[in-house]
Specification:
The structure is a single chain. The protein is 39% helix and 19% strand. The protein is an alpha/beta fold. The strands form four sheets. The protein has a seven-stranded parallel sheet, sandwiched between helices. Strands 7-10 form a two-stranded parallel ribbon. A two-stranded parallel sheet has the order 8-13.
């Protein structure tokens, strides 16, 4: 089966390509936006890199022709002067969905986020809700997977976590007391490929989270213990951070904003975890954290 992946040079995309390469029945086209990004992709015989532009229908057609399923990973949390929620989360999704119709793609797997809601007052959550709606109204069968913080070597969440856990004292927003359900990237990739093969009829929306609830604070201290030391966690008031980011926004576009702060301090809560529906045996949190650390730093808990 041929699948296509957008955002293939993201941390999740690269792990997904490795999973594809380990299967006997899959071939993937890896969509990236520059030739420089092609050079960062893992090289496998089952993977064909494709340079695409979301405003160039011909490049999207080349990515999707003969493909059975599209995995749409592309999107942003932090805006820049070159990329906004509208262009990266909404317009890009609309472009690939339109191209999927033209190419007769049978199924779309869309990776979204917990909290996505077209009625949200948060601009990021709103943009992801709009993108979900575009996929759902495409007329193509689709699986949307809403995710929490993703942990795995190379992910933004893992880099930040290891950086904080490497210190003896760290200050985090709100003292890190918000609830998290970290998901192992390998587990997400298993769910994605399961969805590609299963191709549910109609539209299905799933929330997939890790097996163990925790807090940001406990995640840092646990990782610190695995590294062999104790981390003291202090608080940065959320209102102070929002004020600072608002003032900074007067002189630059994007970066850390009140919108982003609300997202990264939101409680990750689900009513029903979709691991069984998506064919995933969830990785224990401790095993996921251990994978993030160099072997010489890990200690038994």
């Amino acid at each position: 089966m041929h699948i296509a992946i957008t955002g293939a040079n993201s941390s999740v995309g690269k792990v997904l390509l490795r999973h594809v390469a380990g299967q006997n029945d899959l071939l993937a086209r890896a969509g990236v936006r520059t030739s420089q990004a092609v050079a960062t992709l893992p090289r496998f015989s089952a993977v064909t890199p494709c340079v695409i532009r979301y405003d160039d229908r011909d490049s999207l057609t080349a990515l999707l022709t003969g493909v059975r399923c599209l995995v749409h990973l592309a999107g942003i949390l932090i805006e820049s002067k070159h990329s906004t929620y509208q262009t990266a989360n909404v317009d890009a999704t609309r472009a690939v969905v339109d191209a999927c119709r033209d190419a007769n793609v049978e199924h779309i797997v869309f990776i979204s986020v917990l909290g996505a809601d077209i009625n949200s007052g948060n601009r990021y959550y709103h943009s992801k809700g709009v993108a979900e709606q575009i996929v759902e109204q495409s007329g193509i069968s689709a699986t949307t997977i809403r995710t929490p913080i993703l942990l795995g070597p190379g992910t933004a969440g893992a880099r930040a976590l290891v950086g904080m856990a490497s210190r003896l004292t760290v200050k985090v927003l709100g003292g890190g007391r918000h609830a998290l359900r970290p998901l192992d990237v390998d587990d997400l990739c298993e769910a994605i490929l399961y969805s590609c093969r299963a191709r549910a009829n109609g539209v299905a929306v799933h929330e997939l989270v890790g097996p163990e609830p925790t807090t940001h604070r406990d995640l840092i201290t646990t990782t610190g213990r695995l590294m062999g030391h104790t981390v003291s966690v202090a608080a940065i008031p959320v209102w102070t951070a929002k004020l600072g980011s608002t003032l900074a926004g007067w002189t630059r576009r994007g970066g850390m904003t009140p919108t982003v702060i609300d997202v990264i301090t939101a409680d990750e809560v689900v009513r029903t975890n979709a691991d069984a529906d998506l064919g995933v045996n969830l990785t224990p949190l401790l095993a996921t954290l251990t994978k993030l650390l160099p072997e010489k730093t890990a200690t038994s808990d």
